[in-house]
Amino acid sequence: MPGTTDLTKLTAAETAARIASGEVTAVQVTEAHLDRIAAVDEKVHAFLHVDREGALAQARAVDDKRARGEKLGPLAGVPLALKDIFTTKGVPTTVGSKILEGWIPPYDATLTQRLKAADVVILGKTNMDEFAMGSSTENSAYGPTGNPWDLTRIPGGSGGGSSAALASYQAPLAIGTDTGGSIRQPAAVTGTVGVKPTYGAVSRYGMVAFSSSLDQGGPCARTVLDAALLHEAIAGHDPLDSTSIDAPVPSVVAAAREGDVAGLRIGVVKEFSGEGYQAGVMQRFNESVELLRELGAEVVEVSCPSFDRALAAYYLIAPSECSSNLARFDAMRYGLRVGDDGTRSAEDVTALTREAGFGDEVKRRIMLGTYALSSGYYDAYYGSAQKVRTLIARDFERAFASVDVLISPTTPTTAFPIGERADDPLAMYLADLCTIPSNLAGNAAMSLPCGLAPEDGLPVGLQIIAPAMADDRLYRVGAAVEAAFVDRWGHHLLEEAPAL
Amino acid sequence: MTVTELVSYEDALATYEPVMGLEVHVELGTKTKMFCGCSTALGAEPNSQTCPTCLGMPGSLPVVNAVGVESAVKIGLALHCEIAEWCRFARKNYFYPDMPKNFQTSQYDEPIAFNGYLDVQLEDGEVFRVEIERAHMEEDTGKSTHVGGATGRIHGASHSLLDYNRAGIPLIEIVTKPIVGAGERAPEVAKAYVAELRELIKALGVSEARMEMGQMRCDVNLSLRPKGAEKFGTRSETKNVNSLRSVERAARFEIQRHAAVLGAGGTILQETRHFHEEDGSTTSGRIKEEAEDYRYFPEPDLVPVAPSREWVEELRAGLPELPRVRRNRLREEWGISEHEMQSVLNAGVIDLITATIEAGADAASARKWWMGELARRANEEGIDPTALPITPAQVARVAALVAEGALNDKLARQVIEGVLAGEGDPDAVVDKRGLKVVSDEGALGTAVDEAIAGNPAIADKIRGGKVAAAGALVGAVMKATRGQADAARVRELILERLGVTE
Questions:
Q1: What pLDDT was estimated at residue A3?
Q2: In 3-state terms, what secondary structure has residue A41?
Q3: What stretches pass through the bilayer (chain B) (predicted)?
């Protein structure tokens, strides 16, 4: 029987099994993680809010259930770090922004409800780029998060708090949201697993909107199987989200347990290589291609020419939608209110509040989007971007007609130092080059670790892309790759991370 | 504010031709709001019928109300519109504190219904076709109350109160194509159009369309062009004209005002105008120098609406008879004039008369009771005739009692009074009050003899051939029998006794 300190090193699947068998209690597991947070999060800054009491109450409820002999779900009692973009009734939700400082939502997101229903213990809310706009978590109004592999480097973004919490063993499970890569890129640079499910697979009800047609919540974990277990807990039709898929969730847990690529056709996206791609990233990626061949897959090169325009299209569509989505933050009904001294007009109070409450990147995107939607510019910008979106979807369709999944590096480089790209938005945007096409097309994609770049010793992510509604293929391929690498390395990649 | 010297209506029409566009917003009578499950009931505590979605809370999402879509399709079909096979909602972006999301979920270039018409009948029976541009779905805003100012408007107010109960209530906006060719009858056409549309909406059962409750609101867009000109003039938009009479007055006022401005060599500003009930005038609202940029784009939070053709045909097959068609049919069945039908319509008793006829009464008596005694009572009590505590079946029973001679008109009125007073069914009232025509010839004969004996002078006149004088004796007999005699029979007996024939 392990000591409490080891409980944070277990996978979610192992943790749940030990709780179910009575080897440990959910309260013990939760306390171990709360202790870990207390010990390391001052350095990492993964959490914006730790809900100690709420987590322990949930854990006690799980233990009570077990004591009564009730059947426990597959993740009962497992702690989780929730991105601060999902509403939590009675628990602050800031979206990394000053404009929502102090807001206590009166309702739970559907995802929050499902986690609670699955008896997953919510430890707290994790740091993120403000309104999920960024690739480094530096845009958080509450300060940056450190990458547990090197605290002077970024943990990815926007979901850097979630990826860092996993990589620093503060939680075995986390939730992210992915609008342009905000789950996959943080997973890649922290040596963890992250999945952007098919658009519509996970309800967006209660997920604060950045870009409605691109946003998608998804699971983050340290192993492919854990991600699959979490995926099944949170996915499924929600009548409160009109864009939610009304069809059975693909059997991702079964696929993760199978883990087999023999006989599959796998396409390497030709456009995701060349200038701007770090040598060590390409080296590990090419080794992954070889590994897949060894495992019995047929690997072919596939061209998706429209992907070159994905970034440009994304930076018109996402800001356009955000300019409308963020209009509601006007100081009238909730959140920050600045300058309401009884002499100013509502319009002035709104302007002062937005000036003080929104950060630079958010303001930049609101202005870009407002401009792109303006009469006279709409067709040239928003309209053209939607056409590119269609072309990208067609590229995927053509590719998936001949291959089962596509692969690429998740992000062109490993984690860059905090501050390096903070003043260069275009350089920052390049971090999402390989992830954005799947958001535009709405299909599913995963990032999992494929080694350390030799030049900096930092994790590299392998991206697997599947057609919409075929999320199970990600897990089938991902689990096979993960098992082969663990076999080759003798351990999970994360075990090479330095102690904090 | 400068007071415009109006040009007389006749002079205005001698020079100019009016062009109108009418935009009508109808609040649907759905139980819940357009995009969430909150109640739409009127009169609740402020902000008690709200949720994260209709308050625009972070993270909340809309879901389309299926009954709202069905109502929109029904309205579209009744207006002879094409129904979109596929259409989307769009966001209309602008800031206002009573709009929770700071965009209104509406429809833009893909309305659910388009290209239709509504035939409206003017009071003299002339039919005028109003072309419909589109009907689209959207949501209402919340309600601002500006406190502390003199006018209730935001100017001069110390603070404002916001009630979001109305936010998200489904609206259908119905927009006409430019109405041309109505000439001097333009204001009348505007009124008749709104009236007809209201009847149609009520007949469809999609809204009560009560203008005084704000369930139906009309914007009157009007411009003038010199007679014979092709090009439309600049229009003014008179907002929230909320009664039929006001629609007519607003159009009329704007025709006279435009003519005055144009006649003096001025130009009409494209602006919104406020209508004033007190004197029927309009005053300048906000000037629209350039079109406001609402930055419309397709609503990404809602999937497209794609009404299947089968469903649309099912709805079409289930449409009720259109009010104008029904009115004309009933008018012919009842054998009354256009003018009389108009009175029936104005009294709001068409359905009551129809039901009374269905319960067995003949058309003339059904109309007589509802247009006479009952309309008067409703009017006295300031209630809708439908709210009177008497059913069409009860009215039909009274009519039947009169037809079979058991009651005369005077007694029948007493029976109705009894029913209204809660004394029970007509038959029960007849029993309780002992109301029945005296038809006992012996008793009547005695009463007639007494009347003749008591009025010898009149009797002599009648004997002398002045048959018309018999009325006075009939009156005396009726008085003696407390109105329970059959007046016709009394008259016969008197003439018989006095040996006179008519």
A1: 46
A2: helix
A3: none
Question: Tens digits of per-residue pLDDT, A375-400?
Answer: 889 999 999 999 999 999 999 999 99
Residue A364 lies in a domain: no
Considering only CB atoms, B301 lies closest to which of A93, A212, A378, namely A212
**Distance (Å) from the alpha carbon of B304 to chain A's nearest alpha carbon:** 10
Say yes or no to pLDDT of B66 above 50.
Answer: yes
pTM, entire model: 0.89
For residue A207, give the nearest of B59, B93, B101 by CB distance: B59
Q: How many domains does chain A divide into? A: 1
Q: Are residues B61 and A116 in contact, defined by beta-carbon separation less than 8 angstroms?
A: no
* CA-based nearest residue to A281, from A486, A450, A464: A450
Whether B64 contacts chain A with CB within 8 A: yes
Q: What is the pLDDT of residue B439?
A: 63
Contacts with A241 from chain B: Cβ below 8 Å? 61, 63
Catalytic residue list contains A270:
no
Q: Is B63 part of the contact surface with chain A (CB cutoff 8 Å)?
A: yes
Question: HSE of B478 in the Cβ direction (CA atoms, 13 Å)?
Answer: 17
DSSP reduced 3-state for B327:
helix
Which CATH number belongs to the domain containing residue A193 in this structure?
Answer: 3.90.1300.10
User: Domains, chain B, ranges and CATH?
Assistant: 9-296 (no CATH), 321-433 (no CATH), 441-497 (1.10.10)
Q: Cα torsion for B305, B309, B315, B318, to the nearest 10°? A: 180
List the domain range (segments joined by +) for residue A134. Answer: 4-306+393-496
In sequence order, the 6+-apart residues with CB closer than 8 A to the CB of B61 are: A204, A205, A240, A241, A242, B53, B301
pLDDT at B289: 56
Number of CB atoms found within 10 A of residue B364's CB: 13
**Contact call for residues A449 and A415 (beta carbons, < 8 A):** no
Domain assignment of residue A376, yes or no? no
* Residues lower than pLDDT 50 in chain A: 1-4
pLDDT tens digits, one per residue of A126-142:
999 999 999 999 999 99
Phi-psi region of A217 (alpha: psi -120 to 50; beta: other; left: phi over 0): beta
Tell me if A28 is assigned to some domain.
yes
Write out the two tokens for B270: 């494209």
Judge whether B74 and B319 are in contact, CB under 8 Å.
yes
Instruction: Please check whether residue B295 touches A, CB under 8 A.
Output: yes
Nearest chain B alpha carbon to A371: B295
pLDDT digits (tens, 9 = 90+) for A302-314: 999 999 999 999 9
Q: B288 — contact with chain A (CB < 8 Å)? A: no
Residue A42 has a CB neighbour count (10 Å cut-off) of: 8
Is the CB of residue B443 less than 8 Å away from at least one CB of chain A? no
pLDDT (0 to 100) of residue B156: 77
Measured CA to CA, the distance from residue B439 to residue B405 in angstroms comes to: 10
Inter-residue contact A19 to A72 (CB < 8 Å) = yes
Rounded to 10 degrees, the C-alpha dihedral B390/B394/B395/B399 comes to -160
Element (H, E) at A439: helix A436-441
Q: What would the two tokens of residue A187 be? A: 């997973």
Tell me what percent of the residues of chain A surpass a pLDDT of 90. Answer: 94
Dihedral class, residue B482 (left if φ above 0, else alpha if ψ from -120 to 50, else beta): left
Span A210-232, pLDDT tens digits: 999 999 999 999 999 999 999 99
Is A273 designated active site? no
Residue-wise pLDDT for A242-266, tens only, equals 999 999 999 999 999 999 999 999 9
Residue B3 above 70 pLDDT? no
Catalytic residue of the set A97, A136, A140, A158? A158
The answer to whether the Cβ–Cβ distance between A328 and B101 falls below 8 Å is yes
Catalytic residue among A83, A98, A125, A196: A83
pLDDT at B72: 98
A·B CB contacts under 8 A: 102
